[in-house]
Design brief:
By secondary structure, this protein is an alpha/beta fold. It is built from 4 helices and 8 strands; from the N terminus they run H-E-H-H-E-E-E-E-E-E-H-E. Strands 1-2-4-3 form a 4-stranded mixed beta sheet, with no helix packed on it. A 4-stranded mixed beta sheet has the order 5-6-7-8, covered by helices on one side.
Length: 212
């Protein structure tokens, strides 16, 4: 039986009558981050699909400082599994170590060759986050350069994949503005067919397409 002194007085205003739950009452947690974005950030390198950043940089050398600053200070870019770039405007005189954004990224690139009919510009590149896939588990499937298509295809066996898949194939493609779209798509389909049949059980997941 409650003591008379603890029974609320009905004559008092309702604003001052509060439910007394005591010190043992469990408080509602505040500030918990449970959104989809934060859950994905927590397992950035164990997602079912790889995170890919695709950009047409139009000369990478003069953007290296900004590029490395974004890797250092922007978590979403730093945790990307793949950075795919087109139009690097590089040549064999520039080593891959010179354009490496951070020590935990490996660089796989294909510069424009004389087969394209031009001596400057172009080029495609993939920078792979080693936290997602070790460099030893990366195989180059296709390197193609023609007047209509520049293609780099890599096969990955990352640390984490859904059990339905054994590997991932990523294609980075650049189609010059003066190229024939039909011819470029024909060359890409042929290269994709060859890489898919010679690499055993592989899963083609995505590719970059860039046209000005």
């Amino acid at each position: 039986m409650a003591l008379p002194s603890l029974i609320p007085d009905p004559s008092q205003p309702t604003e001052i009558l509060r439910e007394n739950r005591g010190r043992d009452a469990r408080k509602r947690p505040r500030g918990k981050r449970a959104s989809v974005r934060n859950r994905l950030r927590a397992c950035a390198h164990r997602a079912p699909l790889p995170s890919i950043l695709l950009a047409n940089v139009q000369s990478l050398v003069n953007k290296l400082d900004d590029f490395r600053a974004r890797i250092k200070f922007q978590r979403d870019i730093r945790d990307c599994n793949l950075l795919c770039y087109t139009e690097l405007w590089l040549n064999p005189a520039v080593p891959s170590q010179a354009i490496q954004p951070a020590e935990f990224f490996s660089v796989h690139r294909m510069d424009r060759t004389a087969d394209s009919g031009k001596s400057r510009g172009g080029g495609v590149c993939m920078m792979v986050n080693n936290r997602w896939c070790n460099n030893a588990n990366i195989v180059t499937l296709t390197r193609s350069c023609s007047p209509n298509l520049e293609l780099l295809a890599l096969k990955f066996r990352p640390f984490y994949l859904p059990w339905e898949f054994t590997s991932v194939i990523i294609n980075t493609v650049y189609i010059p503005p003066q190229a024939s779209i039909d011819t470029a798509l024909g060359e890409f389909n042929w290269a994709h067919t060859v890489s898919g049949t010679t690499s055993g059980r592989c899963t083609y997941r995505g590719w970059g397409f860039q046209q000005r």
